[in-house]
Structures
1.
Amino acid sequence: MKERAAQAACRACGRHGLVPVLDLGETPLADRLPTTEQLSQTEPRFPLQVAFCPECSLMQILETVPPEQVFDAEYPYYSSFSPYLLDHSRKNALELIGARELGPQSLVVELASNDGYLLKNYVEEGIPVLGIDPVPGPATAAVAIGVPTLQEFFTRELAERLAGEGKQADVIHANNVLAHVADTNGFVAGIATLLKQDGVAVIEFPYVRDLIDHCEFDTIYHEHLCYFSATSVDHLLRRHGLYLNDVRRLPIHGGSLRLYVEKREQVGSAVRAMLASERELGLDRPDYYLDFSARVVRLKQELLTLLRGLKARGKRLAAYGAAAKGATLINYVGIGRDLVEFVVDRNVHKQGRHMPGQHLPIRAPEELLTSKPDAVLMLSWNFADEILQQQAAYREQGGQFIIPVPKPRLV
Ligand SMILES: [Zn+2]
């Protein structure tokens, strides 16, 4: 991996020569959930290796799987299956409607608008919207609830086309998509093109500081190419004439940042404080990232010891959450059907399919009450509070949950 990192060019600044951080081995695509018929076919596997750019401080993976292979017709993510995410999105929209005085003359665009979970809040308030999302299932679902959606990848070219048609946005939302695009600079250039002179781009992604500090290695997968700090994203935005003027830390997805990005430079105190604390902690230097690898190996051993110990005492195990992070965790740790019998997930589009690589079957959450496993490995630990509440009946029957990060523990 060392050689590969040394030869690689940074996704953001183009510098050649990255510092290797973590090697998670060769894993299948985390969002590709095989059907029963597909189980006999070979799943493509790709190296999952993480490196750091000493020039612009961006942590990134080395492999780029072609986006057409990742976000195809079978991409199973529907935002509206999480009540917590819906609430988070609604608050975000209502706040912006007030703060930016949005009305019938405004335009709000969301990049990777999924099933319209966010934009529908603007539609309800009479504000024109445009969703952009290449995945057919969620995009069709968005149109069905009254959210106009272009079924395309967002690129610099698409932004130019829209701007040419006179469409420029007062607000651009980009939640959990900037880190997923292969052409990082093209995507940001597209935002700059599509944004009105006095518009704001509101961008969310998981914060690399939370990932490292809480050992959230399972949020690393092929779909997720970049792992941003305020420092690294600030470098990237400035190259495109955009300024990080305000920032908030959010608890969602294990710890995220929400950026407020504008065309005029007016950097607020929250941004200055965050950049200063990142410098102080060393997020702009390789050392901060290097002991992460040792902690990930330790977590793997502790989790395996815990699961095997339960199994040895005759306990039956299941798992909760067929999300991408779950795929990284079970494949890297090596959790197969000998340890965990099945995975449950509320998303009906995932039920009946299987986890990538380890092929654990995915079932409905009601299975926990009928099949009564003794303990459930929480793969979707980012929604742990919500899931523990939903599973009160299972827990009253004596069922336990295992939270794997930052350190495996039973609750
Ligand atoms: Zn760089």
2.
Amino acid sequence: MAEAFTLLFDAPLGSLNTLRVNATASCLATASDPDVLPAILSHERLREFPVLVLGEGSNLLFAADFHGLVLRPAWRSVRISEDDGRTAIVRAAAGYGWDALVDWTLAHGLPGLENLALIPGLVGAAPIQNIGAYGVEASEFITAVEAWDRAWCGFVRLDAADCGFGYRDSIFKREPDRWIVTNVEFRFDRQRRPALDYAGVREELAALGNTDPGPTQVASAVRRLRRRKLPDPASIGNAGSFFKNPVLANERAAELKAANPSLPVYAAGEGSSKLSAAWLIEACGWRGRREGDAGISAQHALVLVNHGRATGAELLILARRVAASVDARFGVRLEPEPRIVGAEF
Ligand SMILES: Cc1cc2nc3c(=O)[nH]c(=O)nc-3n(C[C@H](O)[C@H](O)[C@H](O)COP(=O)(O)OP(=O)(O)OC[C@H]3O[C@@H](n4cnc5c(N)ncnc54)[C@H](O)[C@@H]3O)c2cc1C
């Protein structure tokens, strides 16, 4: 059998991250089967290297070159592994496209992922920050995550309860050097009703003439909303929302709301509230501003954009300045959502 991986030394990464930062990696390994992971990781030229798993690079900022091994999972398969007519279990490979999975599940009569349509990236990255959009999170459907555990040097299967899922969070995000996600297992309930309560979804469906929409119509509406609201990485480099919405104690959130009545505040469970990071950034005057080729999108204040040749370091400087101004004006600390490679935030 031909080797199921390729190695490229001194690899350019500019086309492999959606912020289009021209970083390089000491080595780029592309694996077409998870079984070759042990061979790659113990390869004599690579075994001392730090490892970074790279999907489509849509949630990463390369603040510097990566002196190590960038590993790309390129195994792609999806199948229904169990089906009792009412619920079905789907096992999807880390290298399968996320939006392709949304379409695949809907085509197989399995609703649920429609609100997560058009999120860029691969299936293997979905559990890392527990991707979410329009009132739905991937963890609502994930039953298990299969991974290579670099601490134990073996393949493991983690039940969802052991994945530590939270708002844009999981154990995989907290221990990025440990896990290489190989497959993700999802459960779907064929009777599930679409989740329409998130702001804008119902209105978009109404505009399309759908008052009793099925999941496929919801996916179309979500795609239309996203195309309108978010800059397309194919046109301008970006990594989606650059900051998480800050979560504060209810009392503190109420104080801020009293002082700033138009600040959107949402319940976040257990005595805490989530604030709109976009509102805070816009209130500090950042929307549409640009420093060299690094900028804040004019379309959406939460999106850091690369107008052309910004380096990762320049983008990071701008992001830090945005966070510092929000902190100075509102006393709220913003945390970046993407992984910053090669620097601290
Ligand atoms: C325009 C735009 C809109 C977006 N909208 C949303 C949104 O609505 N909601 C949302 O949650 N996110 C959103 N994102 C962020 C991003 O699309 C998701 O986080 C996505 O899951 C990242 O997938 P990726 O394959 O590009 O991962 P990458 O960016 O390549 O990697 C992200 C992180 O996951 C790790 N990783 C990736 N694959 C694996 C693996 N197999 N095993 C272990 N670690 C891995 C990487 O090391 C890195 O730390 C958006 C991004 C863009 C550009």
